[in-house]
Design a protein that fits this description.
Blueprint: H1 6-23, H2 29-48, H3 65-85, E1 102-116, E2 119-122, E3 128-133, E4 136-140, E5 146-149, E6 152-165, E7 168-173, E8 177-181, E9 185-190, E10 196-201, E11 208-212, H4 220-233, H5 235-245, H6 259-265, E12 267-268, E13 274-275, E14 283-284, E15 287-288, E16 301-305, H7 311-320, E17 328-338, E18 349-354, E19 357-362, H8 367-374, E20 380-388, E21 399-403, H9 416-419
Antiparallel strand pairs: 1-6, 1-11, 2-5, 3-4, 6-7, 7-8, 9-10, 10-11, 12-13, 14-15, 16-19, 16-21, 17-18, 17-20, 18-19, 20-21
Helix pairs in contact: 1-2, 3-5, 4-5
Length: 421
């Protein structure tokens, strides 16, 4: 409430006295008095009423809801504009290679790598001092320690900028520079907020990545997803990914490794070039085969690689099967041969799927044996395995493992001749 000064009180008393004199008129006085008092009361209420504060305008930590909404709208606008600009025809901050297109550049990023922060002595002992004579003693059991390198931890190496293209990501700092080429990438992960990404490439022993605290720009996790989408599925897929990240609905498209595509494009591996007519087993005498081909379960465990590229598949399956974060569940997985996979170096790519969703691929140094076996089963076979759903608060480490011997064998009861009849 606003303070009332002495001048206002005196003025009010004077007005009140005038009103009392006017009110002495037996005819018009009472009417005039009531009218003037009503006007003064209305003015006083409007002037002296306390202002209302909307508690909903503030979020924990003092951040206003309007500000949070503004930041979300700003990011959505940046992504929407980015979808229109791709491919980015502006001046590139780096020399581009043949067929390379600029996507986006972010500032105020930190390069992070796994490094030791020094060394320390361990194992030293002072021993025991034995007095031999006055002023003379002898120490036994003493030993010198050894210098041991401290365990490695993730550390900030440099500050700089990060540029994303459809072929690589480049960090440029004041002391160091790094390049992650997508054709050499073996794994990618990000934190739940998308501000930190970690990349593994075949030409570097340890994973490294970037992180940012700038909440005003597009997160690195979103940008790497757009860049990889551009690299793997083309320009239109990258534009759609921009719109999806901006919260704009786009017309759904058939997933690259969906069952519908598999049935239309998966080749018959007995000839390795002819198209299959169906992803299911052939019908015999008007009746469909009852069971698909199956890889025999064994005591060995075959690891799957590239799971981080399919984080959305893991999220969909976790909700579908009501699995908690951090849990491991057994599933009946499907192995699908992909002889036309353009990212396979040996041409023997084998995808691991569940419900038509790709979860990863068998490693290049092990996939040939599986690929050759799938030639006998129209390019598909079931295999027992497990899926680990990583906590979303950590860098994504979803993983898949297969329960089968290596090299793999078909389960008893299945014969290739019968299957392909």
């Amino acid at each position: 409430m606003k303070n009332i000064g002495c001048g206002s009180i005196i003025f009010g008393l004077i007005v009140l006295g005038m009103l009392i004199n006017v009110a002495k008129d037996p005819v018009g006085g009472p009417i005039l008095l009531v009218t003037v008092i009503g006007i003064i009361g209305t003015i006083a209420y409007l002037v002296l009423k306390p202002g209302k504060k909307n508690a909903n305008n503030f979020l924990p930590g003092g951040q206003s809801a309007n500000r949070a909404q503004t930041e979300a709208e700003r990011k959505a606008e940046l992504l929407h504009n980015l979808s229109k600009k791709l491919p980015n025809s502006g001046m590139s901050p780096i020399p581009l290679k043949a067929g390379e297109e600029l996507i986006y550049k972010i500032y105020q990023v930190s390069l992070i790598e796994s490094r030791s922060n020094g060394s320390s002595y361990q194992g030293g002992s002072q021993g025991v001092s034995i007095r031999i004579a006055k002023g003379l003693s002898y120490r036994v059991g003493a030993s010198k320690g050894q210098l041991v390198k401290n365990p490695e931890t993730m550390q900030v190496i440099d500050q700089g900028t990060a540029t994303f293209t459809n072929k690589r990501m480049i960090f440029a700092g004041t002391k160091a520079s790094r390049e992650w080429s997508f054709d050499k990438m073996t794994d990618v992960g990000q934190t739940a907020d998308g501000k930190t990404i970690m990349l593994s490439v075949s030409n570097r022993q340890k994973p490294s990545g970037i992180t940012t605290n700038d909440s005003r720009d597009i997160q690195p996790g979103i940008l790497i997803a757009i860049a990889l989408e551009y690299n793997q599925n083309g320009l239109q897929a990258a534009k759609d990914r921009c719109l999806i990240e901006a919260g704009i609905d786009v017309k759904p498209k058939v997933q690259q490794s969906s069952p519908a595509q598999d049935s239309a494009q998966l080749p018959d591996l007995s000839g390795e070039k002819a198209n299959l007519t169906s992803s299911q087993h052939p019908k015999r005498d008007g009746a469909q085969a009852t069971q698909p081909a199956r890889i025999a379960q064994g005591e060995d465990i075959v690891d799957v690689v590239g799971e981080s590229f399919y984080a959305e598949s893991f999220a969909t399956l976790r909700e579908r099967y009501n699995v908690e974060y951090g849990e491991t569940e057994d599933f009946d997985l499907e192995l699908v041969a992909e002889p036309f996979n353009k990212y396979s170096k040996n041409g023997h790519a084998v995808a691991v799927q569940l419900d038509g969703l790709v979860l990863g691929h068998i490693a290049e140094d092990e996939n040939t044996e599986f690929f050759d076996l799938l030639k006998e089963t129209n390019g598909r076979a079931k295999c027992s395995g497990e899926i680990y759903f990583a906590p979303n608060a950590e860098v994504m480490k979803n993983s898949v493992r297969l329960y089968c011997d290596y090299p793999p064998e078909l389960a008893d009861g299945f014969t290739p001749d019968d299957e392909n009849a």
